[in-house]
Amino acid sequence: MTKTVMVTGAAAGIGRAIALRFAGAGYRVGAYDVDIAGLVTLADELGDAVVTGSLDVRDPAQWRARLEELTADSGGALHVLVNNAGILRSGAFSDIDLTDQQAIVDVNVTGVLNGCHTAHPYLRAARGAQVVNLASASAIYGQPELATYSASKFAVRGLTEALDLEWAADRIRVTALWPLFVRTAMVDGMDTGATRSLGIHLTPDDVADAALAVVRRPPRRFGSVHRAVGRQTRLLLASSQVTPSPLLRLMNRRIARM
After folding, report:
1. How many structural domains are present in the chain?
2. φ, ψ for residue 159, nearest 5 deg
3. Is residue 149 among the annotated active site residues?
4. Annotated catalytic residue within 27, 32, 122, 149
5. Segment 50-85, tens digit of pLDDT
6. Which residue range forms the structural domain that includes residue 89?
7. Helix boundaries (H) for the chain
8. Residue 20's closest CA among 228, 187, 204?
9. What's 27's domain CATH number?
């Protein structure tokens, strides 16, 4: 039976690359976004391999409707959920409008929570399903000039860790991908201390490759729920696990040029 994957934020950037990569690997792809024009071009590219639809991840009713439509031909089973949809604003915390910061939380945190909760019965029906949540290297240590975005990814990190334990009995694995800055429209024009220190080296294809590799990885009893994407993130994540908190703070302060 062909396996089904659901990808949010799939019209462009990382989500589009993930949809393309899974389609190339033989999955039936459900690609969802609020950007309908982007989904139209994706459907033109993938043809029958993709099902597209409008999805505002903040709305549980839309989640339920899209899940029911997507899994109608698979006996109500969803094999992979990729929670990719997200938004970002950079700059001084006090200078970013509060409404914009609340929107980051609504999409990046509530959207992932909605997706995991509404998709659970469909994932459980697949027996051996997986959830891939897009976290970020900004969840290693709170990032100046990305404060609310960073906080939202800390929430994704915590939810991922908790659900991977809770859902083990349902044979559902939950993993977080941790990229650093990725060359997408999300970072166009971004100028922060961290981007000047570290640069922007990853591509959407790098993240898509990591997502497929995580899903294909055999289950491991003591495997980590976190997957760093790219050499820089691997080094940062590894060092954070052995560095005393005061030194970690100093390291991040220097990266952020504060």
Report:
1. 1
2. -65, -40
3. yes
4. 149
5. 999 999 999 999 999 999 999 998 999 999 999 999
6. 4-255
7. 13-24, 36-46, 60-70, 98-105, 111-126, 147-166, 193-198, 204-216, 231-240, 245-255
8. 204
9. 3.40.50.720
